[in-house]
Amino acid sequence: MRGPAPVRWVLVTTRTPFSVNVRDLVGKPGEYREVELDVPAAEALGEGLVAVRAGTEVRLDVRLESVHEGILVTAEVDTTADGECGRCLREIALPVEVEFQELFGYHVGEAIEYGVQDDHVDLEPLVRDAVVLSLPFQPVCRPDCPGLDPETGLRLADHPELAAPEQHDPRWAALAGFTASTDEGSGDEPDADHRK
Ligand SMILES: [Zn+2]
Question: Rounded to two decimals, what is the model's pTM?
Fold first, then answer.
């Protein structure tokens, strides 16, 4: 029912937008060059609550240095991750600034994972790893975000009246339960939490 399969070899020979031509530096140890790239992310970087979405501009400041073994790449990555606060679900945008350094060898071996190919270095996997590792697992809109009211689901930051003094912070309530369960004095008011 389907049409012919896509022609795979086209994909193999296509370089990523993060591929940089280093022909002028190959075999000339001591020489270096700096280059800036502004590339929209072809696909999302990261899968968590915040991620760099496809199409988001990714800026690279790259230093390319010719050494005996290959091309030493030092790069600063600048972009923005979008997503939501892990506590109150508000939409947030986080600046992402990460650096990496990697040697692209003329001969890939045990110590050299990345190679110079066709006079190019492809920074795409390094950009991806650096960005994804920098993304927070528990992003927050602000460090003291109070989250959602457990009963109404409203944002406590928008409805301070819901955060009445007698209400327990759910995080501390969990801790209190833990303390009570490890308390061996089973006689002292086990139902204290439920009285009111
Ligand atoms: Zn929040």
Answer: 0.72
